[in-house]
Amino acid sequence: MEAPQKAVVTTAAKQEKLLSKKARELAKMYNFPFVPRRKQPLADIINTWNLPVIIYGKIRLELYLEHNSPPFFFHPNTAALKVRKLVEAGTSPLTETGKIKQGDVIVDCTLGLGADSLLMAAAAGPEGKVTGIESSKLTALIVKEGLQHFPMPLQELQQAASRINVLHGRAETILSAMEKNSADIVYLDPMFNTPLSKASGIDPLRKLADYNPVTEELIQLAVKTASRGVVIKEHTKSPVFEKYGFTVKKRRGASFQYGFLTGKEGEG
């Protein structure tokens, strides 16, 4: 079933007067209907419009796909943990695999909640730049607004967030429009059909995610775009690494690995 690409926007019930103007502006920006809350239950709004609902709150946006399901919202918890480890150790499995350094230009083809984009933006430093591509319009909206407005727990995270440009669309389409060698690294993290853990925190994201596997077309476009190379994250036993020629430095006991495929700059 295809993920929804449209929603209605309203406010938190107790903050309608305070937030209506901003909620209207958000709805207009994304060409979504705005619905005055007027103490309406969430279930009534969803049933009336037959669309997901974005609730504009004081701290964050919350996306409800169904009235009885948990909301999807941006949170930097995983990113904060990764960036803390990066600051302490000076490296991480992802940044080491891609040899990411200060000033790098990076394309993340599978943005999701943005944790890896934030990590790579932190590693690339003040002169670096990350473009995060997300196929779900609703995920792209929630994460883009979160990166811009959510109060980050770390200064390094706040600075990294400012260096991420979120684009909604298919990775193949966006990479096709990019010039050859216009990025240093292209990153691929396809959604696993079998979750790595039973954590329910990203369940709403799974309902919006694109589960299509990586294709030869996507790999070729990534290699075309990346001067240094392509990094992919996959299950430890995934056949993708061998199929497309990724080099893997296996981490013992890890449920997933990072693979590296040399870009055009490294050929010959």
UniProtKB/TrEMBL annotation:
<dbReference type="InterPro" id="IPR007536">
    <property type="entry name" value="16SrRNA_methylTrfase_J"/>
</dbReference>
<dbReference type="Pfam" id="PF04445">
    <property type="entry name" value="SAM_MT"/>
</dbReference>
<protein>
    <recommendedName>
        <fullName>SAM-dependent methyltransferase</fullName>
    </recommendedName>
</protein>
<dbReference type="InterPro" id="IPR029063">
    <property type="entry name" value="SAM-dependent_MTases_sf"/>
</dbReference>
<dbReference type="GO" id="GO:0008990">
    <property type="term" value="F:rRNA (guanine-N2-)-methyltransferase activity"/>
</dbReference>
